[in-house]
Amino acid sequence: MARAAVLGRxxxxxxxxxxxxxxxxxxxxxxxxxxxxxGHEAGQHVDVRLTAxxxxxxxxxxxxxxxxxxxxxxxxxxxASADTVTGGExxxxxxxxxxxxxxxxxxxGVAGAGDQLEVRGPIGGWFAWRATQSEPVQLIGGGxxxxxxxxxxxxxxxxxxxxxxxxxxxxxxxxSVIYRSELERRAADGLPLTLVYTRAVPPGWSRxxxxxxxxxxxxxxxxxxxMPTCYVCGPTPFVEAVADQLLSAGHDPGRVRTERFGGxx
Amino acid sequence: MNxxxxxxxxxxxxxxxxxxxxxxxxxxxxxxxTAPLGAARAYQQAPGLVLRCSGCxxxxxxxxxxxxxxxxxxxxxxYLQFDTSPS
Amino acid sequence: MGIVTxxxxxxxxxxxxxxxxxxxxxxxxxxLSAGPTPKVRxxxxxxxxxxxxxxxxxxxxxGLQALPTRQVTVDLHCVTRWSKLATTWEGxxxxxxxxxxxxxxxxxxxxxxxxxxxxxxxxxxxxxQAWIAYKYDAEDLTPEHGGPARLLVPHLYLWKSAKWVRGxxxxxxxxxxxxxxxxxHNYGDPWREQRxxxx
Lengths: 265, 87, 199
Known about the structure:
The structure holds three protein chains of three kinds.
Chain A lengths: L1 H6 L5 E10 L4 E7 L11 E7 L5 E7 L3 E2 L16 E2 L3 E7 L5 H8 L6 E8 L13 E6 L3 H13 L6 E7 L8 H9 L4 E5 L16 H7 L8 E6 L1 H14 L6 E5 L5
Parallel strand pairs in A: 5-6, 9-10, 9-12, 10-11, 12-13
Antiparallel strand pairs in A: 1-2, 1-8, 2-7, 3-4, 3-8
Chain B lengths: L3 E2 L4 H4 L11 E4 L5 E3 L4 E3 L5 E4 L6 E7 L4 E4 L3 E5 L6
Antiparallel strand pairs in B: 1-4, 2-3, 2-8, 4-5, 5-6, 6-7
Chain C lengths: L12 E2 L9 E3 L19 E5 L5 E5 H5 L4 E8 L4 E12 H4 L9 E6 L4 E5 L9 E6 L2 E2 L9 E3 L12 E7 L28
Parallel strand pairs in C: 2-6, 3-12
Antiparallel strand pairs in C: 1-2, 3-4, 5-6, 6-9, 7-8, 7-12, 9-10, 9-11
């Protein structure tokens, strides 16, 4: 253990659930106390490992939803801050229940304050946004793919960054929108937000249910001429379809970063 | 089997490397494409991790993690370029 | 072992004394792969056995189907620790394929469409221990599980049962395959828990 720490290799740390917060009927945020947490960047994730009493283990990756506090900043209480800037040794993950998902069913349905699990992280420097970036940023999320994008939105706010951001968020129906009240607040504060529903829309909605398509991208996202960095996250079919559309629209492939969650849309 | 982005393998690679390898640029020995490893295709539903080139599907990197030994084969990469500029 | 989360039970699994050490029973059929699923058309498909002297024995799809069909029920043991018992397959026995093959070689290198390789002693392919299987559970073998046809050698860990099998080359010297060359045990007997080098 000491040798790994000296070399900087990642090892598993024990995390204790401090609080849980339901985001939708199927998505829940877990606030985790992780002693020794080294901080993280927006977009990074943790690997979570669960071990059953008979030794069976399962590992899954979850994006960190919260923003790391600056060193020396006051710590926020569990779930208290709408900006979710967590205390130095706390992180938040938002887990969507996957049908037959053995880990998500536990995390989003069973885990409660006091339960322990193991995390490894922070991980992933490629799908990350840093406040040193000044170019326009186009965020496109499908379902729980909004989680790392929300971390970026929160990080931008916490850093008071002037970088122009736009968020396009696709979900099945209005009840599936994660972070709805916070998103509406941020939209009212000036974040260009486009919600897309694929299965059912609210009354009076101008766009019928349907997936993200080229026309929507053309109307709601930064055009290639603005050279945005695009972050696309969600189920694999969603990410592939959107990434293809971005490239067809003329975006530079080097500026499109994808995080496939696997699975079906 | 649908792969994930190389980013998904970052955790496992961080158990070997002290730095984030998925942020490094790698050149594929097969087709010469140079891209961040985070953009490679990661096959993790296997006895080991396989990272394949997003251009030609050639194997860039393989990792097998045993209980007390981990093996890495990087012969599919001509080189890795790390950003070591002072932060 | 890491810390235990008592409320976590995971997928339905049973313990059984009939399992090799370190395995758990699964009721689904996990799909593991080291690369994209090859798309092989039956009119292009072929299976070859190449001897150490370069003699090539070749079967196309019709030729394979013309050989005696065997129906077998076997247990599968994956090195990633899941086992699936009493799986039913239909295919051709390697004994029938090797019937006309003359060789002095001791080793077999197996090649798959897509480039996967594995290796095993020739004697482990014979005497009713291995099949080229093209049906699973009475249906055509799906691509994700190795269709059109895969090797099935159930007495060894499942990574030896190469999916999308294309051919076997007989060699005088053992040639470690894809996983055997990077830490996995060269032979892979689940009952002796031979998972990694040196086990």
